[in-house]
């Protein structure tokens, strides 16, 4: 018994409890119908509703059009990642990527300083598993797609911009 404890192997009631949990997991994997139902239930929590996707897209476009960077920043997680050809153009960052909300907000400020008018127009919203894609008219009147990957609280953790034509 002493050797089992020194090796951190469960004994007594804890062993029964741990073993019981393993048996339940094993039974779930063997029961395909139960597993399928579990996966369907999980999927319904990661695929955003059409209403939620539309709400996120409209809030994002409205924040840009009003130049409300604080409201825009609230939509992003602190450790978010942004990729865009505009990052390379405006910030001189050859990778086209920025990491963390502070760097991203500085980029947005530079965009706002540079652009006299910001008039995004929402064309379409597409939803996926934990993602929203926004089709819109962006800076310089260019058509763009914004792919947003969301966390469980619907904050943007990764965003990638693509444009139809850039300089």
Description of the molecule:
The protein has 167 residues and is α+β, with helices and mostly antiparallel strands. The protein has two domains: 2-45, no CATH class; 50-163, Nuclear Transport Factor 2, Chain: A, CATH 3.10.450. It has helices at residues 2-6, 12-30, 32-46, 50-65, 69-74, 85-91, 101-114, and strands at residues 76-83, 97-99, 121-127, 131-137, 143-150, 156-163. It starts with a helix and ends with a strand. Residues 3-7 have low confidence and may be disordered.
Strand portion: 15-25%
Largest sheet: 6 strands, mixed
Cα(first) to Cα(last) distance is 73 Å
Order of adjacent strands in the largest pleated sheet: 2-1-6-5-4-3
Task: Give a count of the beta strands, DSSP E runs of length 2 or more.
Answer: 6
Q: Low-confidence spans: pLDDT under 50, at least 5 residues?
A: 3-7
Overall mean pLDDT stands at 82
Number of helices, where a helix is a run of at least 4 consecutive DSSP H or I residues: 7
The CATH architecture assignment of the largest domain turns out to be Roll
The top level CATH class name of the largest domain: Alpha Beta
The amount of helix comes to 40-55%
The topology string of helices and strands comes to HHHHHEHEHEEEE
As for the number of domains, it is 2
Structural class: alpha+beta
Rg from Cα = 23 Å
């Amino acid at each position: 018994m002493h050797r089992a404890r020194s090796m951190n192997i469960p004994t007594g009631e804890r062993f029964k409890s741990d073993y019981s949990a393993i048996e339940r997991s094993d039974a779930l994997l063997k029961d395909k119908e139960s597993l399928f139902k579990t996966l369907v239930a999980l999927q319904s929590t990661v695929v955003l509703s059409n209403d939620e996707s539309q709400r996120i897209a409209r809030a994002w476009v409205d924040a840009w059009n009003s130049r409300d960077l604080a409201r825009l920043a609230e939509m992003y997680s602190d450790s978010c990642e942004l990729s865009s050809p505009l990052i390379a153009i405006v910030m001189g960052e050859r990778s086209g990527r920025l990491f963390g909300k502070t760097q991203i907000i500085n980029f947005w400020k530079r965009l706002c300083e540079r652009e006299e008018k910001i008039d995004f127009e929402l064309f379409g919203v597409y939803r996926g598993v934990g993602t929203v894609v926004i089709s819109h008219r962006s800076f310089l009147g260019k058509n763009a797609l914004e792919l947003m990957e969301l966390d469980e609280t619907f904050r943007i953790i990764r965003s990638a911009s693509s444009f139809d034509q850039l300089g």
